[in-house]
Amino acid sequence: MTPENAKQKRDQLITDGFCIVDNVLTDELLNDLRRETDRMLDSIDHPPHWKFQGSDLNVNSCDEPVINRLIHWKHTRDTLDTLGLGDFKADETMIILSKPPGGPALYWHQDWRRWNDPISTAPWPQYLFLSYYLTDTNFENGCLRVIPGTHTKRIDLHDLLITPHTDAARNVDEHDQYMFCDHPHAVDVPVRAGSLVIAEGRMLHAAHANHSDQRRTLLLCWHRRSTEVPENWTGEIPESILNRDPEIDYEPTRVPGSYLV
């Protein structure tokens, strides 16, 4: 990745909340991941509450060698370093999100649980999910959808959505006018197999239904950093963060509050 390309992707991540890095996985690792994730998915029951995600199988790195390889994949670590994200640490668990043929869309949601904390106003990348796609993914088989900029800016939809990953969200009607809406600012994110999507967990995102006759699988790993201002940050620092009390234990919530404006 050239310095110019790295700057472009970092700027997109900061502004829009996501970027794509192609050809992160080798063909060998990609094939190993396809084989092993198919094995794992075929060996378990899929409970009803997985309906919209397709699957939500959490696999620890110590239990599956191929997952351990991916979590510690050097190309990913080099990519994060190049993008100025070297202070992010990966969870030791991968989530297999595999939408079966005919699987419904995934509803609009964000995954941040710290909306009561002033760190929610961070203009820099703060809470990232890295998604590795094992097949070419597009509208037809259920690609990612995002609403750029919603990790730092409130829009109408924030106040109309059911709190994500709750029973109410898992059991929502597939035709809910807000949870599955075609928002005018939504963008599809089609990717090629072996590509990596780096995205902000604070950003509103969803996924299309899988209209194909093949399974659509991705592997997602959460990456976190401290609440300190990044050493490489040269932009403005919000007053809410400058005045943040690091000793306060802020009550967790998935509902955006006053820090999202």
Topology diagram in text:
Layout: H1 3-16, E1 18-21, H2 27-42, E2 57-60, H3 65-71, H4 74-82, E3 89-90, E4 93-99, E5 106-109, E6 127-133, E7 144-146, H5 167-170, E8 187-189, E9 196-200, E10 205-207, E11 216-224, H6 239-242
Antiparallel strand pairs: 1-9, 2-4, 3-11, 4-11, 5-10, 6-9, 6-11, 7-8, 7-10
CATH architecture: Sandwich
Return the average pLDDT rounded to an integer: 97
* Main pleated sheet: 7 strands, antiparallel
Morphology: globular
What sequence of helices (H) and strands (E) makes up the elements? HEHEHHEEEEEHEEEEH
Number of helices in the DSSP assignment: 6
Q: What is the top-level CATH class?
A: Mainly Beta
The CATH homologous superfamily is termed: q2cbj1_9rhob like domain
* Total strand segments: 11
Report Rg: 18 Å
Head-to-tail CA distance between termini: 34 Å
Beta content: 15-25%
Class per helix and strand makeup: alpha+beta
The helix content, as a percent range, equals 10-25%
Low-confidence stretches: none
What is the CATH third-level topology name? Jelly Rolls
